TrEMBL record:
Organism, as annotated: Olleya namhaensis
Lineage, top ranks: Bacteria, Pseudomonadati, Bacteroidota, Flavobacteriia, Flavobacteriales
UniProt keyword list: NADP
Membrane is among the record's keywords: no
Protein name stated in the entry: Acyl-CoA reductase (LuxC)
Gene Ontology terms, MF aspect: acyl-CoA dehydrogenase activity
Keyword Transferase: no
Length: 353
C-alpha cells in the first residue's frame, strides 16, 4: 500500500472513530483502531469546544461529526478521488487559514491537502481550536507517515508554498495583498438563498427550516435570504419554522434576537416575526442572526438573471427544479466531498501548485 493509500485509509478509520460521537448518546464501539487511546480524550475535547464557544452546542458538534463520519466512508472517499490523478504530485506545504463559525469548518480543506499528497500548515480560528488538532493526532497514529506533514501554528505563517484562506470581505483584501506571490484560494463572505414559488409542500418547508436554523444560521451554507413571488403568503412558512422555537432558549441566540428586533423597531423597519425569527424585506444576502431577508421577484427569467449576476455573493441556492446546481431543501448543511466552497475545485488547485 502506497503512502497516499495509507493516508486515505487513515481518513476512513477516522470516519469510523468519529461515528461514535455522532449520535445523541456517545457510544464506545468495538473494532475501532486506537479507541482505548483516543476515545475519552476526544470526549474531553468536545466538552472543551462547547465550553469555550457558546455557539458550539453539543447538538451542533454532533451534527458536524455525523456529517463527516458519513462522508469519510471508503466508498465516498474513493469515488471522490477517482476523478483525480494524484500520482505525480511533488509534496509542497500548503497553509490553511481557517474560519471558526461552525465546528470543523476547515476540515474539508485539511482533508484535500493531505489526500492530494501535500503537507499542511494550519492556522485555526480561536473559536474552533479544540477538535481538529486532536483528530490530527489520531490520523498520525493510524498513518505514521503523516508525522511531520501536519503542523498547527498560532504565529505568523512561514515556510509555505501555497495558501487557502477563508475570512470576511475585509480580511480577504488583506489576504490577497499579503499572499499575492503565492498560489492561493481566497474565500470571502458568501451566503445562501432559497427560491420559493408558493407551491412548496409542508415537507419541503420543514426541510428549509433546517437550512435556516442549523448552526444558528452562522454558516455560509445557511439560507439567509428568500426569493418569493409577489403576493406570497408566509403562513405556511412560519408554521414550518415553528418546530425550531426552542432555539430562543439558547442565550446567545436570544441575545441576538432581542438586539436585532430592537434595532428594527427603533428604525421603524417593517418586519414579520414569530417570537424567535424575524423576516424583513431587504436586497442584501447577509442577514443578522435570527433574521432572514426576503426579496420579491417578478418573473423566473429576471430572477435567474439576478442570480447569475450575484453568483459571487452566493454559496448555495435551494430550490426545486428552478436553477442550475440547485440544492434540495434540507441539504445545505450536508455537503458531499465534491461540494467545494465557492465552487472552486480545491483538489484541482492542489494538483497544479
Amino acid at each position: 500500500m502506497s503512502n497516499k493509500d495509507h493516508i486515505t485509509e487513515a481518513f476512513i478509520q477516522l470516519g469510523r472513530f468519529i461515528s461514535q460521537f455522532s449520535s445523541e448518546e456517545v457510544e464506545k464501539k468495538e473494532n475501532i483502531l486506537y479507541n482505548d487511546l483516543f476515545f475519552d480524550g476526544f470526549k474531553h475535547q468536545i466538552k472543551l469546544a462547547k465550553e469555550y464557544n457558546g455557539w458550539f452546542t453539543k447538538e451542533n458538534i454532533r451534527f458536524s461529526l455525523d456529517g463527516w463520519s458519513t462522508q469519510l466512508s471508503e466508498d465516498n472517499i474513493k469515488q471522490w478521488l477517482n476523478n483525480y490523478n494524484t500520482d505525480q504530485v511533488t509534496p509542497k506545504t500548503v497553509a490553511i487559514i481557517m474560519a471558526g463559525n461552525i465546528p470543523l469548518v476547515g476540515f474539508h480543506d485539511f482533508l484535500c491537502v493531505l489526500v492530494s499528497g501535500h503537507h499542511v500548515l494550519v492556522k485555526q480560528s480561536s473559536n474552533d481550536k479544540h477538535l481538529l488538532p486532536y483528530l490530527a493526532k489520531y490520523l498520525e497514529h493510524v498513518a505514521p507517515e503523516l508525522k511531520g506533514k501536519i503542523k498547527f501554528t498560532e504565529d505568523k505563517l512561514e515556510a509555505f508554498d501555497a495558501v487557502i484562506a477563508t475570512g470576511s470581505n475585509n480580511t480577504a483584501r488583506y489576504f490577497e495583498f499579503y499572499f499575492k506571490n503565492k498560489p492561493s484560494i481566497i474565500r470571502k463572505n458568501r451566503n445562501s438563498a432559497a427560491i420559493l414559488t408558493g407551491n412548496e409542500t409542508k415537507e419541503q418547508l420543514d426541510l428549509l427550516s433546517e437550512d435556516i436554523f442549523r448552526y444558528y444560521g452562522l454558516g455560509c451554507r445557511n439560507v439567509s435570504k428568500l426569493f418569493i413571488p409577489k403576493g406570497y403568503n408566509f403562513d405556511a412558512f412560519f408554521a414550518a419554522m415553528y418546530k425550531w422555537h426552542p432555539i430562543v432558549n439558547e442565550s446567545k441566540y436570544a441575545n441576538n434576537y432581542d438586539y436585532n428586533k430592537a434595532v428594527y423597531i427603533m428604525s421603524e423597519f417593517d418586519m414579520l416575526e414569530n417570537g424567535f425569527l424575524m423576516i424583513k424585506e431587504d436586497q442584501s444576502y447577509a442577514s443578522p442572526i435570527a433574521t432572514v431577508f426576503y426579496e420579491y421577484y417578478d418573473t423566473e427569467d429576471t430572477l435567474k438573471q439576478k442570480l447569475d449576476i450575484d453568483k459571487d455573493l452566493i454559496q448555495c441556492i435551494v430550490a426545486d427544479g428552478f436553477y442550475k446546481n440547485e440544492i434540495p431543501f434540507g441539504k445545505t448543511q450536508k455537503p458531499e466531498l465534491s461540494d467545494y466552497a465557492d465552487d472552486v475545485d480545491t483538489i484541482a488547485f492542489l494538483l497544479e501548485i
